[in-house]
Fold:
Amino acid sequence: MRAVAEVQVGLMTLADVEAVHRIETQCFPIPWSRDAFEREVTENQCARYMVLRENGTPVAYAGVWLVLDEGHITNIAVRPDRRRLGYGEQVTRALMQLCADTGIAYLTLEVRRSNVAAQGLYRKLGFEAVGFRKRYYEDTGEDALIMVCQHMPPAHPENDPFLIEE
Structure:
């Protein structure tokens, strides 16, 4: 009998950086450095990252930069051996909820025009294509499709973990 994995989604911490960086290098031809993720967690006050942990180990993550009322999704990745389990959708929905709770009105992202699977997920989550960026990806010169989501989940500001109460 196969054991069921315990799956939890939460904010990325410094303890997650090494595993997140490993996922990044497995998923992207030009990965962010480990130091970049560390700075996102410790220094970038506009950055928010969610991590999906399976039995305590990060297997997916999603990040966003918050600027005024806009959130720009920086990266979403699922460890290759854990794909097609709904983890990408789960961690992205958690990130979207965090953004809504923080007061974000809409989200933007870029995705490779050839990445039909990711585009399908984003459409399922309410994103719409609004344009493209020519030769956006350095490794291949491929265009990026720009997508926007203006239909955020209902906000629960009391759940914002970064809320400062005086």
Remarks:
- The two ends are 52 Å apart (CA to CA).
